[in-house]
Amino acid sequence: MIHRSLLLALFLLVFADAAAAQAPPQQSQPDWPCRQVRVPELAVGGVWAGPPLDAAMKHWRDDATIADLVTRLAQRRTPMDEAERLVAQFAKSAGDKRKERLTTLFAGVYERMNDERRDLVNGLDRFGRRLKTMAETARKETQTLRELQDQKPPDSEAIKKASEAVQWRLRLFEEQRRMVGYVCESPALIEQRFGALARAIQQAME
User: Fold this and answer.
1) Which of 40, 90, 189, 206 could cross-link to 121 by cystine, CB 3.0-4.6 Å?
2) What separation, in Å, do the N-terminal and C-terminal C-alpha atoms of the chain show?
3) 1-15, 52-66, 156-170: which range is least confident on average?
4) What percent of the chain has pLDDT over 70?
5) Is the confidence at residue 19, as pLDDT, over 70?
6) How far apart, in whole angstroms, are the C-alpha atoms of residue 188 and residue 193?
7) Angle of helix 156-183 relative to helix 98-150, nearest 10 degrees?
8) What's the DSSP call for residue 78?
9) Would you say 24 and 34 are in contact if contact means Cβ atoms under 8 Å apart?
10) Which helix (H) or strand (E) holds 59?
């Protein structure tokens, strides 16, 4: 059984630390659990200086070769040196249509990775809501335990069960809180890879 004062101190420590570490930088996004600014869309303007993408965005899936290459390039398990080699090979095979086909390739990479980032950000929103729900549940369970401990005479069995429930809730929350720190890095990793692919594709146009 956990002592009441220790329980309260542990509860305040865990949840105060969680709130400080994960306070959303954008107050309009109360469910966002990350320190990083919530940016669901990839910015093309900062990495792409090639031809306009409007037409290519509509047709890249129609080309099986490009669609397959987009999938391989977007996957993070494909090392960047291999991705650069694949882009160079594709550019060489495109011949006189190199610029056009590389533009179409980039349009596919952008759409694929932008969708991935958007889905990830939406998933983090759901994760943030789950953390908030867990925190509220733990708060209520802690209050229940304190009320049981204040009862005269105390119900030892009820206190034991409530204490075990709170300890389990705190452990679960702390595990989830540690996890979110790693997951919050994923949007930035997608953006970094997207920028590297944009540079590789533009260099292959030269």
Assistant:
1) 40
2) 70
3) 1-15
4) 86
5) no
6) 9
7) 160
8) S
9) yes
10) helix 54-59
Residues in the chain: 206
Query: DSSP state, 184?
Result: T
Structure tokens at 65: 């070769």
For the chain, what is the radius of gyration of the CA atoms? 25
Name the burial class of residue 166, with classes exposed (0-12), middle (13-18) and buried (19+) by CB atoms within 10 angstroms of its CB.
buried
144-198 tens-digit pLDDT: 888 888 888 888 888 888 888 888 888 887 787 778 878 899 999 999 999 999 9
Q: Residue 160 and residue 62: Cα distance in Å, rounded?
A: 64
Q: What is the 3 state secondary structure string of the chain?
A: CCCHHHHHHHHHHHHHHHHHHHCCCCCCCCCCCCCCCCCCCCCCCCCCCCCCCHHHHHHHHHCHHHHHHHHHHHCCCCCHHHHHHHHHHHHHHHHHHHHHHHHHHHHHHHHHHHHHHHHHHHHHHHHHHHHHHHHHHHHHHHHHHHHHHHCCCCCHHHHHHHHHHHHHHHHHHHHHHHHHHHHCCHHHHHHHHHHHHHHHHHHHHC
